Recover the amino acids of this structure.
């Protein structure tokens, strides 16, 4: 149940989901050794960071094999979320007649 709730929150509010993941589990601390990388992931690429933390396997030496596809999909989600925000922003170019 908790995993489904985190997935639902993550689909609408990825930064809140990552913050909850950071507080409740040890996935983020296990994946990144530096606080700066954790913070940059939270601010810049939340979907990618969530997926990377979830598929990271320290025993295997990191993200290997088909798990890289999941990280790529997380990056694609981040790019799409930034692109949709830019598309919704009003244009600064005037469309009035005579300009």
């Amino acid at each position: 149940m908790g995993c489904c709730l985190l997935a639902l929150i993550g689909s609408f509010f990825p930064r809140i989901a990552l913050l909850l993941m950071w507080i409740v589990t040890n996935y983020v601390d296990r994946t990144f050794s530096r606080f700066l990388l954790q913070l940059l992931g939270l601010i810049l690429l939340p979907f990618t960071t969530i997926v990377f933390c979830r598929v990271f396997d320290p025993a295997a030496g990191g993200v290997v094999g088909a798990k890289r596809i999941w990280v790529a999909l997380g990056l694609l989600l981040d790019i799409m979320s930034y692109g949709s925000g830019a598309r919704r922003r009003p244009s600064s170019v005037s469309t009035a007649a005579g300009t």
